[in-house]
Amino acid sequence: MTTNPHQTFIRDTADTDVEAIHEPIAREKAEPRDGYEPISIWLVFLFLALAGWGGWYLGAFSGDWNAMVYDERAQAGAAPAAEAKASDMLTLGRRAYVRCQACHQPTGQGLPGTYPPLAGSPYATGPAERAAAIVLNGLQGPLVIDGETFDNIMPAHRDLMTDLEIAAVLTYVRQSWGNDAPAVAPEDVARVRAATAERGAAWTAGELDQFALPEPEPAE
Amino acid sequence: MNRTALLYAGIIFTVIISSIGLVFIPEYQLFRLEPVEAADGNLYPQPRTEFEEAGRRVYIAMGCVYCHSQQVRPEHFGADIDRGWGTRRSVARDYLYDQPHQLGTMRTGPDLVNIGSRQSDDNWHYQHLYDPELTSPGSTMPKFPFLFEKRTLEPGREPPFNAIRMPPGVLAENEYLLPTTDAQQLVAYLKSMRHDYAVPEAQP
Amino acid sequence: MVLAVQDPSEGADPRQELRSRAEIDRSCQGPVTLFVASAVAWLLFGSLLAMAASIKLHSPGFLSHHAWLTFGRVRPAHLNTVIYGWAAMVGIAAMLWLQTRLSRVTLVFPRLLTAIAWLWNLAVAAGTVAILAGHGTGVEWIEFPVPVALALALLFGAVGLVSFYTFARRPPGHIYVTQWYLFGAILWFPYLYLMAQLMIHLGGATGVVQGSANWWFAHNVLGLFLTPIGVGAVYYLIPKVIGRPIHSYYLSLLGFWSLALFYNWAGTHHLVGGPLPAWLISVGIVGSVMMFIPVTAVAINHHLTMVGHFHMLRTSPTLRFVVFGGMSYTLVSFQGSLQALRGVNEISHFTHYTVAHAHLGVYAFYSMVMFGAVYYMLPRMTGREWSSARLIRIHFWGSALGIALYWGGLTWGGWLQGRMMNDAAIPFLDIVRFTIPFLWSRSFAGVLMTIGHVAFAVLVWRMLAGAREPARAPGPTLLGRPRGEREINPAEAQ
Prior knowledge:
heterotrimer, A: mainly alpha, Cytochrome Bc1 Complex, Chain D, domain 2, three-stranded mixed β-sheet, 3 strands, B: 204 residues
């Protein structure tokens, strides 16, 4: 292949030219080679120890290689470690408050002109049933709190929250940010839920001012 | 090392074995998963409607995954449940209909896998997407103004029923805002995200 | 056509050896410099996207009015341009050149490779535009639409074949450790990429298994594609520049095979706490921790090779970048092994800590090594010297200080962010506000790194365009005067 330019380059140029054009190559050191120092025995021990650890870890935390086991601490035979489920109303309430805080804000202060505050609000701290009714069915229309007027819509939470969650979140709201009102029990919420089951619409401030639960049907 | 064939074989072997271990075996273990029947007689998770699925594509196209994860870690691990991002850990069954997955690895914003059970208000979502600082002062979430259409009101006319309620002062007196189809689909998707049914493998 | 030369250690004629090297470097000139130049262009573009994404995180109003420039698109566009544009292209360049050098034969099919380089550029450009237009797939590290991904896999396969063919024509003899790593990269990447497409985008896997496939792939892009090229280059360049054999062949063996064995399995540590069966996560954690073995082996091997020659870091640009990269490799891997542990991951997961870690790997290790490699390769292929030692210094310090600040700021900030997130009493928006100063420090670090990249690009541009001749400088461009010498000693090459 005489037409190959590289070939010609090699054949036709004197060594000095090669060096001149590829001066950087001329000054470099030989291609790398291997040395043959032995591996330290300590390193080998270290690696074996690591491998041992790996084996132990897989044995201990692999849930029997069962795809339905998600808790790495669960092993065959041993009952899965029971979680300490939060049971007090304030903790449950703080967790459930995540459903309110996007609007009423983590501080309970709301946002001026849009979302009313829960801190210091008579609706939050007033009768428990009325507060539960707001959460269950929502609220709309003009509303005055602390001299500021709001005219917005709060959505219903009837299908989103259980009685326990609503009771907990109201308890949390009624006892945070300087609010100090009695706790709400799930039974209270259940009663309101039953009594307002037929009502689809959100409340208005006017209705709430005369809020009273319908008398429970007298038992047979 | 001079045995080229051994070198090649070793290289290929190691990677194939790992794909079997991390991809094929899990697939074999999980591909038969089915929805569970809940107390209300429905099967969960429920497949998304076409409208919600379209919203999921908007979610992907806007890159929400780079700031929001979609997974709740268990009670003993992190504070996901304590923050109210879910009432139980997420499990494989919850993702039966996800294609492609959007599990996410970043929480610049909160986890969203249960956003549907904590924020059901379309109007809030629209305000938030239009300008997150309207609902969440100090938020670093981007604005998505291009998901909305700003219109001018003819004098003496009322805005249409589907105009977004905005805090006072954001729009001019004679303007109103409408969500585009993309925005409506996106919000429908967000509202569909709920892992609040019980599954046997995530019992405490 | 293919020139084969004997191993110099077997007493070949030194002139003959010189000639063959010149011949080899010449044969690489066209395609390899094209790959390098393209890579540098992508690096600049990727830096631009990086700056935009970084600024958006602390000042969300920045460029927020167009869907094309929303954070959720700019960020993946950044990742994909720097990985598939910069890192992959410079990696291919290094791979081709190292393969010819170590096989002692000229590069075959240069025109094919040139065409591949252009097509590769086209594919990355198309993929990036697709992401910005909203057609990204939304799966991290595999955002390019499927056709683009398939094209890239195919092109890479072709590069691999050329590399094999080059290798197959070598005179019989020892296969140097760098070559093992190169074969690793060549064989691993196409399998990874195709399998990821198949399992995630083409319906192979359901639900969370896609997550597992996603991170099996994404972690291995670093571990089985970039890392082998980077480590392989270090194995070549350190002994080459200092003129000393690699400390121990046995450590090389151990390092390579334990990497091949364990790195594969580390991926699911990206999903700790997630909705995957416990065993799958545990396997990922063990794989990650076992990475202590290859990393320690390689670190010891490199360190003991370098011992006694650290003074050369003052003068040799190549060595400075490469040793910085090699040390970062040790650091990032140890950090990664620890980060996989459940107790650590509980805090670091989902935070900027992880982002810092990723950059320590791809930038402080891989990119720095590749910078060093380019400083070594290009003068040999073009016959020109670097036009300015000062620009090299600006590049080094911009990049080194930049990445140090980047990593320091986000590691610290991310760790605190994680601790705060795990305390439900702290409102989420307080955490958002808390991270902002750290995000500013990242933007500032980004500016430093970008300055370095611009200096680098100017140097490469001048060398390739010959803008500032001299075709033949009097000697190598060094960063300082070698110890105990008044004149620059040509033996202390770049």
